[in-house]
Amino acid sequence: MNVKNCPRCNRIFVPQGRRICPVCIREDEEKYERVRAFLRDHPGSTLLEVVTATEVDEDTVLQFIKEGRIESSDLRGPSLRCERCDAPIDSGKLCSSCQGALTKELQKAAGSLKPSSAIMDRDKKSRPKDKMFTADMKDKL
Ligand SMILES: [Zn+2]
Ligand SMILES: [Zn+2]
């Protein structure tokens, strides 16, 4: 079965397309509900006010914004910034120009994987030769 460790709590779980385990997902849901309820009652709060009132850590609140579950415009003060060039953005992790650059890099990385599979092919092909050599030896004996 395809299992992995939860990057947050280290529990082993079956990903099923999820990044974190079901326990952490439920914790996130509860935090999300708290943040959303607070912002509904106190629109235009600062990140600090949200963190203080909901006791949800700043990283988690920012994660909700990154995932697009909370509008960064609901918050006053610091909004999201691109992880690469620090340009202000509305959602996600990267601005559109960095997103494009990253996609190109990933394509390049995928292309560089090909040589290693070619080496494996060569290894497979060398085996029949070994057998032929052994057969030769037998004929001579
Ligand atoms: Zn977890
Ligand atoms: Zn950028």
What does it look like?
It is built from 5 helices and 4 strands, in the order E-E-H-E-H-H-E-H-H. With 141 residues, it is mainly alpha-helical. It has one domain. The strands form 2 sheets. The protein has a two-stranded antiparallel sheet. A hairpin with a 6-residue loop joins strand 1 and strand 2. The structure holds zinc ion (2 copies). One zinc ion binds next to helix 1. The site of one zinc ion (ZN) has 8 residues, from helix 1.
List keywords for this structure.
mainly alpha; 141 residues; binds zinc ion; flagellum; two-stranded antiparallel ribbon; flat
What does this entry show, briefly?
This protein has 141 residues and is mainly α.
What is the topology?
Layout: E1 4-5, E2 12-13, H1 22-41, E3 45-46, H2 47-54, H3 58-66, E4 75-76, H4 96-111, H5 114-140
Parallel strand pairs: 3-4
Antiparallel strand pairs: 1-2
Helix pairs in contact: 1-2
Bound molecules: zinc ion (2 copies).
* Mean pLDDT rating: 81
Low-confidence spans: pLDDT under 50, at least 5 residues?
Answer: none
Counting DSSP H or I runs of 4 or more residues, the number of helices is: 5
**Residues in helix, %:** 55-70%
Counting structural domains, the number is 1
Q: Order of helices and strands, N to C? A: EEHEHHEHH
Ligands and ions found:
zinc ion
| End-to-end separation | 50 Å
Query: What fraction of the residues are assigned to beta strands by DSSP?
Result: 5-15%
| Shape, per Cα inertia axes | flat
- Estimated radius of gyration: 26 Å
- Structural class given helices, strands, pairing? mainly alpha
Instruction: Summarize the biggest pleated sheet.
Output: 2 strands, antiparallel
Secondary structure tally: strands? 4
Major beta sheet, strand line-up: 1-2
